[in-house]
Amino acid sequence: MTREEFIEDLRNRVRESFAMELETATPNELFVAIGQIVRACYAKSWHNTRQRYLVNKQRQSYYFSIEFLPGRMLKSNLMSLGLLDMVRSTVEELGFEFEEVLNVENDMALGNGGLGRLASCFLDCLASRELPGNGNGIRYDYGLFKQQFVDGYQVELPDAWLKSGNVWEVRRESEAVEVRFGGNVYMQPTKDGKLKPVAENERILRAIPYDTGVVGYHNDTVNTLRLWSVEVPESEEGKYRSIEERRMVEDLTAVLYPDDSNEQGRLTRLSQEYFFVSAGIQSIVRYYKKLKMPISRINEYVAIHINDTHPALCIPEMMRILLDEFDLSWEKSWGLTVSMMSYTNHTIMQEALEKWPLQMVKYHLPRMFQIIEEIDRRFVTNLTGLYPDDLIQRTRIIQGDQIHMANLCIIGSHSTNGVAKLHSDLLKSVVLHDFYVLYPERFNNKTNGITQRRWLQQANEPLANLIDKTIGTSWRKEPTDMERLMNYCEDNEVLVAFEQAKQQNKLALAKYIEKTTNIKVQPNAIFDVQIKRLHAYKRQLLNLMHILKCYFDLKDNPEMDFVPRVWIFGAKAAPSYTYAKAIIKAINEVANLINHDPIINDRMKVVFLENYNVSLAERIIPAADVSEQISLATKEASGTSNMKLMSNGAITVATMDGANVEIRAAVGDENIYTFGLTEEEVYRYYEQGNYSAQAIYDQDPVIQRVLNAFVDGTIPNIQREGQEIFDSLLRYNDEFFLLKDFVPYCQVQAKLSQDYLNREKWQKMSLINTAKSGIFSADYTVQRYADDIWQIAPVDLHKEKRN
Ligand code: CRA
């Protein structure tokens, strides 16, 4: 598309859609019009991609996830299509602020944190690698809540992201399916002496798919993210007369559960899970029928991925279709199902492992229940005599009055993977050890990754351009080519240029901070960043304790040498997680105290930015000097902000947890600050039960002063919250061992401050972190899923021609 064609198109669309002239358009109209143009640009490729897959009978994977967190899409789509520079300069020449146009777009925030963002990174990489892989999820009317601080407290506001429309989605009326809930199922003999399930009094809901194109980077592949929305089917209109009754139905896909790494055992959630699973599986089977292949070969064409246990019902739902609709035998259906399914575990936190009350499933999803019961019965029967009874009891799906979804996933799939080496090892040796005994060949690791396209190329253009200038542009397609930056570790000119790029980003963030919080920060201070969900195990509180220690040091000795630092937080707490909310309040009050203390004299600033989301992450990450990855070892399955920050040249302060272990191996000990308990030490405490927070407190006056600050009025306005925090550490013995890790944490922080003064040393570390970050590209992660688990490959164009 030429500049002239673009302007012409823009002019027409603004006229047609808004009855307006381009000159009088506001960023809102421009956003919609440009969005339409972009969509039109990839429409043909989208159609062609689908046709190619169909004609070639391409084996495809379907990534089932209850969360997707793509963020904004205008800039990324423009970049993928190679139109970004032209559109940006044209829009600016026309007299508009391109940034303002981008900012009109609501973040598509249909996820909580790492798990949902990972799903979106994966989709981006599948398309960019020309791999036939699609997403399947829920089109929530309301995304993750918007966070505001009122008096330092988190307040949640609804995220009505669809209210001004969504240019990217296509409603596919003709591909709607029905999903059935409740009723009774009984088995009826057929003429040929078999038993067939007959259902009565079911509640029928209509599932409408909304498809979004996932545009590959500089190629012709556009894959599909299919999100389902609920409606009352026309045939059922009579049953839902009142508005309230209809609302009950529509509530099903109204809101995303705002919990991260935590189970929410609620009926609506179970219904959501079955709804998008059933709709998705039905639509896959319907597509497969178009290939005119026998159902007995469906596993050669379809790979289904279960992203955490939320889509676990994929297994019984596929069984239902094969058994009830295709009349296959149990054995045949089971073989096909297991070979199609694969599962990723994302956490070892007990409270996140989904269990559903048996009665709830039985009542609301009776056919699912029957099938799960039969899977469980056969599992027990087949293993009895071969394995110890207690092992069988621990691994079976139905235990007491609960259904264990992770057990269902492992038993009903051919692959179970963790998301970082350490995590996958823990699954095998501890958390899922019993299953590892049963099915060692099913277990594997797939360390998470991120897409550098969004998190470096798009979010950090100054750095990306500099990398181009230094080593050429090949890294944009092959991220490990960033290794070539290692040749410039000693090149002062290059180091200075990288420092300037960082400085430019810090200035931009400083501006944003001032605009949104009124806090002035110095761009030459260390920008120390912790951005992730607020969770006790992630230990934002440990960070806060260190801040308090620095504050007291300065108060005691105002003349001391102190390397200025700005601590930047971004974090949402689940609305029902009172402890996490107490920590938010405490951070905000400490910020207030320190930021206004004249003795501190701007040497410390604490900034908690509201409403952390993908777009805010894109602002913060390029400007970070320090990346806080300080979860208690064993608790963070992988983490992915660690990878994003590293890519952008931040130095990690890390416990040996999740993917931090692999980051250390990549950059070398001297380019990361590690501290804290190791996995072995943590487990030793668990085994010996001899951790005593009180003993540590009693012996350390610094810790006493820091903790007392929460209850003695030093930190104002946190009576209730301060007490809760204080009690969590002492009365309840510090579940995540903060006190134990506090001293070593402060030590590495002090070292870091000193190192920061040595600009050359610091800049070299920073460069090495970027250089070594290529291996954490999700391009490679996705390729490993494609090769080892899904067995999918790009369309073979030669073969296509021969056909
Ligand atoms: N909360 C893990 O805790 C991991 C992501 C993606 C999480 C993170 O360490 O990086 O998944 N787990 O694998 C999770 O959601 C249900 O479990 C997360 O995002």
From TrEMBL:
Alphabetized UniProt keyword annotations: Allosteric enzyme, Carbohydrate metabolism, Glycosyltransferase, Pyridoxal phosphate, Transferase
Broad EC category: transferase
Cited CDD domains: GT35_Glycogen_Phosphorylase
Molecular-function GO terms, alphabetical: glycogen phosphorylase activity; pyridoxal phosphate binding
Keyword Glycosyltransferase: yes
Cofactor: pyridoxal 5'-phosphate
Catalytic reaction(s) noted: [(1->4)-alpha-D-glucosyl](n) + phosphate = [(1->4)-alpha-D-glucosyl](n-1) + alpha-D-glucose 1-phosphate
GO cellular component terms given for this protein: cytoplasm
Function: Phosphorylase is an important allosteric enzyme in carbohydrate metabolism. Enzymes from different sources differ in their regulatory mechanisms and in their natural substrates. However, all known phosphorylases share catalytic and structural properties.
UniProt-recorded name of the protein: Alpha-1,4 glucan phosphorylase
